[in-house]
Amino acid sequence: MEKKKSWHNEIDFRCSFGMWPFRRNLEITPRGFDWCGELLPLKSITRLRWGVDLRRGGIFPKRVYVAVFGTSEKEYIIKTKQKDFYEHLTDRYWKAVGRRLFTEMMDGLAKGERYSFGDILAEDEGITVNTKSAFSASKQNFYPWKELQWGIVNGSLCFVKREDPEKLLAGCSFLWVDNAHILNIAMGLLQNSDDRKKLSLLKLK
Predict the structure, then answer these.
(1) Where are the alpha helices (DSSP H) in the chain?
(2) Fewest C-beta in 10 Å: which of 11, 30, 44, 137?
(3) What's the predicted TM-score (pTM) here?
(4) How many CB atoms lie within 10 A of CB 21?
């Protein structure tokens, strides 16, 4: 009971943003995400994404922090220039929904399911990359984890082959690709794992 109560406190969040008459309200509780009076149960939220949108103009680029959540049918976008607010909000995203999405993905991978992240299909034992060309039909190539290296470059999770680390194999943007952060958490755990064969063996602490 104490652990459940602690989780309730961790995800509890209320905020208002935007200028009148376009002001919006969001409340996050164990009941779900309440968006301007529309309650979305936590189980109905199937995608998250967040990142920094650098807008050019003048001497210095303008930073806009973007945090998105959505169901299978709709998405809801919050934009702010306040870094602290953005960090608190995305922390609640992860604790309220992200951990569940991670567990569901691991369970699905163990059953043979594949998950799309842009041009990447994440599988239990590696990724399949869809390579497009203007002069030929698209190709799909599979790469096991042991043949890959990965890391974050310019707001994207990027993959290269170990034998050719200078050439980008594939990448997915945290700002534009749903659940890219979920995959990134998995890749961080895999990086520190002694057995880099299957993602489904990973567990969150």
Answers:
(1) 2-11, 83-93, 99-110, 180-191
(2) 137
(3) 0.90
(4) 5
